[in-house]
Amino acid sequence: MAELMSPDSRRCTYFFLYDESKVRGEGDPTREGICYFYPEETPVDKQELLCGQLAGVVQCVSELSSSPVCSLRLHRNTFAIRMRDNFFWALGCSVEVPTISICELLDQLINLFCFYNGSVRQSYQLNSRESLAARWAQYLSHLRSGSSELQHIFSCLRTIDSAKVDPLLLLKAALILQTCQRCPPVLAGCILFRGRVVSTQMSPKLTMKVMVHESETYTKAQRPNGPSTSSSFGSTVSSTAVFLTMSELQYLQSVPVDKDFSSHSTPHNDASPKKTRLSRTLSDMAFTVSDSFDPNSSWPPQKVSFSSCLSESDNLMFSPVPSQTTIATPHPPPQRLKPPSSNGKRSDEAEEESHYYSFHSEGGGDSWIHSEGDGSVFEENSHISGDGGDGDAACDRVFRFRGVESGNEESHDAHMVVRDRVGSEGAQGHKPEQEPPPHSGAFDGPEESTLIPMTLYLHRVKGLVLALLVEPHFLSDTASTEEVYYSSLASLNGLEAHLRAIFPGAPDSPDFYIFAHFDCIQSTLTTNLSGRPRGAPEHPFVRATSLLHLHFCNTETLQEAIIRSASSAVYGTRSVAQETYFQVHGGSLRNSGIPYYQDSAFSLPTKARHKLLKHGVHLF
Amino acid sequence: MKCLLIASESAEVLFHWTDPAFLQNIQEKYEVTQEEGQRLPAFEDSISTLFAPMIISCTTLVDRLGDSYTSFTTENNHIYVLHQFEECLYIAVNGDGEEGEDDLRRKIYVMKKMIEVLFGMVTLSSNLLRKELRPQDTQQRARLWKHLQSLLETYSQLRENDQSFLVEAVERLIHPALCEQCIEFLERRLVQHLNSSAERAGEEVLHAFVLVHTKLLVFYSTRSASKLTTSDLLTLIILAQNMYPSNIDTDDPDIENTSSSGPESFYTPEPSPTNRDSSTDKPLRGSTPVFEFMDPDIQMAEDSLQTLEVPPPGPLTPRRVFLEVSSKDGLYPMMPHSMYCLPLWPGITLVLLTKIPTTAVAMSVYKFLEAFSTLEKRLREGQEGSAATRGPPNIQDVRSKLDKFIKVLGPSEVQSAQLQNVWTEFKNRAFARGGSGFNKNLIPWCKNMKTQLCGIYRQCFLIDSGPADIPRCLSPGLQERAQTMAQEKLMDWKDFLLVKSKRNITMVSYPDFPGLIHFIRVDRSTGQMIAPSLCTTERGPASELGKGPVAQFIKSKVWSLVSTTRHFLRKGYSTVTLRDGDFYFCYFLWFESETGYKLEAGDIPVLPDDSAPIGMLAWDYYWKLLRYYSKNQQGEMVKCYELLTVHLGVIPTDIILQHCRQLASKLWEPSRNPLL
Fold it and tell me: What GO biological process, any one, is recorded here (chain B) (predicted)?
């Protein structure tokens, strides 16, 4: 039976989102609560049966154990369960898929939804079920499709085969990202080629989320749709609103941006347009490294003057004066980055934190301690840059996101609170120095679910995509967008041409062995087992790898293992940072199963050590 | 935080067992909602209320989806495992991290196996089993549940502490010379004496064995006896351990100690007049260890169970056990036997298994049950008329035999009127001209017939319905004589045996294996295992591993290794080596011909995660594996072995493999006696 099913349908058989708050009374029909059900063609009464029974039984078990159920199994399906905010998610896969992977998959799915839509509850308040159902379907199909079974096992990133690519190209890609990041509103980015990662500055999980949108726009041939907006650069550039969790944001901000560059950026307006290019090609790298160039040169005059103020005197930063000037601006924009938290103080801190880097690189040359904890400068910054962005889709979203009907007024109030506090702090002097570092874990727990709106900016050059996570005001800031666009355009074109020339690479000479090497830190997989049907789940190597990976996950002290069935012997080894699996093809495995030291299975570790060297895998 | 629950489809609790932590958890749930001063609801009510939604949802899913829950896991790592046998739903829960899903599933299967051994074919009728497990009389129910609870606890304790119950194979005491003497004694003297005695009341001793704690000193079967399966033997050891527990915890062969654990009253023959019910043949232990250590408050609230003292049964009353018998014309599961557990000294027990005179009735009932099941199955598949009745079994043959069977039952005290009526009705419908013949309409009547047959079986073998003055078992005098004979025989060996059982073989005896820490070798064809003793307690004799934490650590590693290798075996991997921390583990499963010729490793079937547990106690995986493998070995007897080793991680792999090779090819005792 299982053999008849395609690998995809083996992976996911059911997925549903059920809103328990809609079914409270005895008379409420279960269907009222069904927000999304996959497969969509399932008869309604079966949908109701599954939703009703599973939600009910999970309730019963959760009560008995005083803890939410995270997975349940039937004879034919395993379900991962998540309950949050009266929502009930269940993702069902065939029982061959390890439970741990299903739970991971469900988390990915929910996180993807939140990344592109913000809070689930509010999304359902603001949008129709049908439109959101399409989103769920899209994310689900993204997660189910594309990658091979091995990639599913490790839920790793799809990367370009680094063995086939000139390392200089990877360096070039990294450089493009680095230079883009120097533009203040840019948090981090990644470069993708035909749905595979070339280089990324983001965590593997975040990169995976970004790739969903990329693949969608890729398949839809750059047709602007949904929340995406095309910019003045035509169809090659698009953007969409996204939402980061607090920890993701913290992670992004914990990566140091080139300080060297920042210290050089003294404000001067006479910089030539050529010098404002953020990106440098490899050829001109030698010159530009020591080159001083100014990101502020094309900022609006108002901003430039403010920046000058900052560099003139540090003290100014702590005076309430700049804040007052913002009140004078005709359209006080909302505090778009303020997390929807009732705890004012905490969210303020979060806010300050979330803008540390943007401030830092803008303010130029100041040590970060100064900026930390001081919201006034940040306020100034965001207001100025947000000036032209009142009609911005991302901003609108923020209003709704915060659930403010008369958005301007309340955000204004909130703003005043911040200002007041900042003012008093400014009077106290350099208090921020005593504050704990921003990553002390203050935002663990409930704050984790706080979502901060950001924008995903995509610049496509044929198969190549530059994806940047930028602060929402980036789009309205023509100077920055042009900056990023023009400075990376040439390099992207060059990179695309090079990558295209490499793909698809020459077919491998068939090895007499199979291996899979998983880098746990970067979440990347190197393997010489490619594509179906050899990569299909029934392949002995894939089966063994899946099983061993599970045991490595469950037993911390397990370092290596050899397992042998009648037809295959697989060796697996792992260290803190990597897992490697190795199997020798064919060769008669005739053995009696009785221990025998000349048995070929036991020479696998030595063989793996030798053979994998040429793939850049070092086993000890 | 452990619990095991059996429920009917209508969410009626048929049996429950909880540890104190779980009991408290349940009660706390009610304390919150209960008003001050109000009495907590009876525990049985609480538990059935809390589990009801789960049970009902299970039934709903089976009805409407043809699927059902097999497990739940919560975020705080509570595990619920569910399994449905016929109409009984078993739920096992663990909330303390000590048991995994596999362990819970195993526990469920073991519970079911024990119920089968205790109730026999009555388990084939859900209706009757429900009544049997949950007697109307609360006292009777409390007594029965307590017995089952203590069996379950005995099993759990053995599984956690005894290597033979870890791998589910019988461990023998290694002393070939003594073993030989004992066999001779059992054959020539004891069994012969018993079977030729006039006081045996028609019973015939088939098997006799001596247990030293859980280890088998000697096992003897008469020529007419069929082979006792490992599964049944392991269950009998649990029953014997439950009656005369050897304190594994103290590890001290101290007489006082063992007798102080409660069952002194067993020695007082006190045939209670109320014993004329189904529990007569199931002597019960006075108290279960877990409840002894309970908070008195909890004990008070604990339903009627606590208020009852189980009437101590006579020690010489045999218990009825239902075991598999293979005879010339096939396999008969759950045939009635009497089991006599005669304590020789604390820790040493002589067990006699006898065939009861009415075994033939059980065989007939089984054949009829099988016939009606086959018929029902065919009718369900849509076959009608002659297609459904075409043999085997030949329906006309069944008809005449059943007619005869009922006629024979008639004059006896067995109440067969009901069976007679249903059978007449069945015949009218099936065979008479006006009847509907063999079609779907007959299915309920097939079921009805099966229930009636199970009812007859129940009357014959579960209820002691005969007049009290007619002896129905080996007379007390005869039992005492057997006891004395065995005591005389083993008197000189007694102390030796008690020590030997703790240090059956030791790693010291294997100086040729540097770096080898532990091994277990199992012969799955005979269901026997051998392993160096693991002593983990402070008071017991020390093994080479010392006492306390180190030994405890090794023990926990061995236990987890067994569960890991089972997991791989389930997925078709028969060789596993693991480097885990400072240790190197190996596991091998292989097949040999009877002459010791190595056979090529065959494919091992891949089983789903929720399949029956791998082992020999509850469900004989290895027997099925052997059958599967033998299909390709023309007529040759195939043997199956397993070897597990634990080495120090610093030992080179080729040395480790050499060790494994030597341990696998032949295992010798230091005195050059071959083991296994």
Answer: vesicle-mediated transport
